[in-house]
Amino acid sequence: MTADPQFKRGPLSDLRVLELGTLLAGPFCGQLLGDMGAEVIKIEPPGQGDPMRAWGRQKAGEPSLWWPVVARNKKAITLDMRQAEGQSVFKELVKSADFVLENFRPGTMEKWGCGYEELSKINPKLIMIRVSGYGQTGPYSHQAGFGAIGEAMGGLRYVCGDPSTPPSRMGISIGDELAATFACLGALSALHYREKTGRGQIVDSAIYEAVLAMMESLVTEFDKTGYIRERTGAILPNVAPSNVYKTSDGLVLIAGNQDTVFGRLCEAMGQPEWPKDARFVNHQARGANQKLLDGLIEAWTQTLTTREVLDLMDKFGVPSGQIYRAPEMLEDPHFKAREAIVKTQHPYFGELRMQNVAPKLSESPGGIRSSAPTELGEHNDEVFSRLLGYDAARLAALRAAKVI
User: Fold this and answer.
1) Burial of 89 (0-12, 13-18, 19+ CB in 10 A)
2) Which domain holds residue 104?
3) Phi, psi at residue 44, to the nearest 5°?
4) What angle do CA 304, 308, 313 make, to 5 degrees?
5) pTM
6) Cis peptide bond prior to 241, omega within 30° of 0
7) What are phi and psi of 354, to 5 degrees?
8) Annotated catalytic residue, options 176, 223, 311, 332
9) Is 80 a catalytic residue?
């Protein structure tokens, strides 16, 4: 389907974001908005830049391989927000901005004279997206709060890992990314409100609250029954069968816990009588006999190859799959058909593959329009001249004063 010409650069192509802050919680929100077409102007300190420019796994002496993902679709300018003149230039930019995105410790923007009270006087329609460890209010708000702390405080760390080990972490920065995703949701909700009222507002996304929002019924279960969820490894207690099972040549994940799906799994296994067995007759019974049931299923899967199990599960309509790493993703025909991973061009690396924009929109899809800026202040001349009308002399003066 061809995109509507009005939205050929994405559904948010008429919006401008000033992205402040560093590392991941703020910049990932900026990535999401940029992927959907917003003009994201990333503001970095002169001579310093976002540490994400050096984070991730890369060969010695080469640029970051994380930066091209989180900084795609962005323009990079430099501006020293600690200088009064830098703050003045920033406020000029705010006049034409839809969003200001920041993830500093609460109070930092106010210290620079750039809190929402000041900025909203300049631009009453401005939406200020604020991502922090503990939120903008409350007794902990002033404390430093990285994603790992939010994951622990929000309840995720305690339930991750094997019960025989201390709490584990996930292999990604999930706390930061959840807070950024909720910040993006809040920003678009605030945008809809602005369309009806003409007024901007603050979006306050706390890492620990974003994690907490994903914790299902953990608090409610304790509130009504005193039950505390514990680490359970690869399973969810009382949700069976849903586990990773050994095959003759690898591993396969099977999720057959819903009653009708369990019946189809039993048919595939040649055990059509199991759904009537008192031990497996319904969700509660299977949960009570989870370990027994998982053992019976694995005894069967170990007699087959992974491919044989997957083919049988597909034939009988049972959700199943392999546990993918990057190599499997790059070779999978479904990933290719949906362009879940795309080839991009990078000034240093040449062809670079990365995850595509999600979700997919049928009428106004987002996309990767430009590679991440490689140089600090790469777009200084373009942005300051186009948005603020600065000429060469003004730009030279700002550089001389180390404002940009």
Assistant:
1) buried
2) 5-214+360-400
3) -125, 155
4) 110
5) 0.92
6) yes
7) -155, 170
8) 176
9) no
